[in-house]
């Protein structure tokens, strides 16, 4: 029987997303289950196995037609051995390797390829999203943290210890905000959801003019990155200053990233990128200010296109081998 | 007859270096000729052809044994079509493509692969030099300008328009020194031979203490990057401040480059790197200050090992296909 289908699995702390795709990356079926992180996350792998077996049965899809399963996961991934550790939102701790590949392969009879979630989302956007299947694409995801998935010559960059693509830890402000990694001034501290809020608080403190954002901060009300972007869009001066600073750092990091990779696109995704064109156009402005001329004309700043599907699509791409 | 030899050609503005190597990259013969840039550099390609044919004959090496010729060149390279333009130190201007590949292939009967000189030197250091043939290696060359040759997953990074690896144009100082590229604060403006001298002049102007470097500058004597490093090594305070600043920027750029590529080594070569361990150790210090923890422990800052041979060795590597 000809192998013509891929399975993509996007393992997250809240849900596990699944999809069955054609070899060309067209999603044919998708479903999801809640992530059960109880008992040290010991239900997760069995749940994945059961869900795949159940759905292949449900769709009467013969396993002989499956090219393979690809999966994106949080935590530290050993791609060769197919193990994962230190995925704290799954309750998988750092000194207890989960034999994800061996277990899923044994439980499904299918081969599994695995990589970290930001890499996999990057691969999804490169293959079927804003990257247009180009050989060189950089993906930056702005969420709780800032991650990256970088593709050069058609392949994900992992580097010698898997820290390739740690875009969130590009230093954009020497001596700046302290980062969870121990350094100061990392991109993540300025452009993640919490980074935006951090900037908003600092800017509010130094601003004396009239601003809704300032009153929210001064009154101790909850400020989220979405609120900052919404206020900026509605014309709040201070909120606009914050957004400009976020865009400044993203443009600076994108330009330096692009002096190294000269990708056809820097694709911006993740929750913070929901601000859309409002954010993208400003990032582009900063990027153009810092980018080497050849890069400025050949590397485009784009918004991610696949949304929540990037994970399953990129995971499926992994399984193409 | 078994193909077992490579030819590497390193085309420069002063000399053209040649080598015959084993398939494993061992240099067996090397020679060089002066670069004749007269008549719009029209003698260069014929000279290369003659020199190769002559030496193969001289060494009684059958052309059937040659796997191919690889060549590094200044200017803008179209790798696919094998053309070069805008190599100003060869008198090859920007709107007149040189059909380097077609001509050399016709003239020698051998296949030619071509890439730019910094990429090729990077490939040499990766294959047979400080890179230890690892899959992920970054090479930074500090000369008149600052160039890079970046290897990820065992392949050179070119990007969509060939501007991948433009390490000299990573912005390290927003709003800083004006660069020839039109931007401000590019690495090249601080760490090339002229960049070091620029820093020396600026530091001398602001320094009131006792310093040999300051007297040289104040007296209008010639200051070179070598003089700055020599004075620093002999304990001159101001010269040490300059070297520290050069190392600061190189460490900053190396750390950010490594957050992206996580290479096993950042290899520093080119004329300015003749300062050796004196420079390397300071770059490492700055690098460690900015690098993401996983990168700090897995990416090493190294000095180039092949010297002038990097070009021919890397060029030969290109010919391996």
TrEMBL record, chains A, B:
Pfam families given in the database record: ROK
InterPro entries reported in the protein's UniProt record: ATPase_NBD (IPR043129), ROK (IPR000600), ROK_cs (IPR049874), ROK_glcA (IPR004654)
Protein family (similarity comment): Belongs to the ROK (NagC/XylR) family.
EC identifiers of the protein: 2.7.1.2
SUPFAM superfamilies on file: Actin-like ATPase domain
Lineage: Bacteria, Bacillati, Bacillota, Bacilli, Lactobacillales
Alphabetized PROSITE patterns for the sequence: ROK
UniProt name for this protein: Glucokinase
GO MF term list: ATP binding; glucokinase activity
Source species, domain of life: Bacteria
């Amino acid at each position: 029987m000809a192998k013509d289908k891929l399975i993509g699995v996007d393992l997250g702390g809240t849900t596990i997303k699944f999809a069955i795709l054609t070899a060309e990356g067209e999603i044919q079926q998708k479903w999801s289950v809640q992530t059960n992180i109880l008992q040290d996350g010991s239900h997760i792998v069995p749940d994945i196995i059961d869900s795949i077996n159940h759905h292949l049965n449900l769709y009467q899809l013969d396993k002989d037609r499956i090219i393979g399963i690809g999966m994106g996961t949080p935590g530290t991934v050993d791609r060769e051995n197919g193990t994962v550790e230190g995925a704290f939102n799954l309750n998988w701790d750092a000194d207890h390797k989960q034999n994800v590949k061996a277990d899923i392969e044994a439980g499904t009879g299918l081969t599994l390829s695995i990589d970290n979630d930001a890499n996999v989302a990057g691969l999804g956007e490169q293959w079927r999203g804003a990257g247009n299947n180009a050989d060189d694409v950089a993906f930056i995801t702005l969420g709780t943290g800032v991650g990256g998935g970088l593709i050069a010559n058609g392949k994900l960059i992992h580097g010698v210890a898997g820290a390739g693509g740690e875009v969130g830890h590009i230093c954009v402000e020497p001596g700046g905000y302290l980062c969870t990694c121990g350094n100061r001034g990392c991109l993540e501290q300025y452009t993640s959801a919490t980074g935006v809020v951090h900037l908003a608080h600092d800017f509010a403190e130094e601003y004396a003019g009239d601003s809704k954002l300032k009153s929210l901060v001064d009154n101790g009300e909850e400020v989220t990155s979405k609120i900052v972007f919404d206020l900026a869009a509605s014309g709040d001066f201070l909120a606009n200053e914050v957004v400009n600073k976020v865009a400044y750092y993203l443009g600076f990091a994108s330009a330096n990233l692009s002096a190294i990779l000269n990708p056809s696109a820097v694709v911006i995704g993740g929750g913070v990128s929901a601000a859309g064109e409002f954010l993208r156009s400003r990032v582009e402005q900063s990027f153009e200010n810092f980018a080497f001329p050849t890069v400025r004309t050949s590397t485009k700043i784009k918004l991610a296109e696949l949304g929540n599907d990037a994970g399953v699509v990129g995971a499926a791409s992994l399984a193409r081998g």
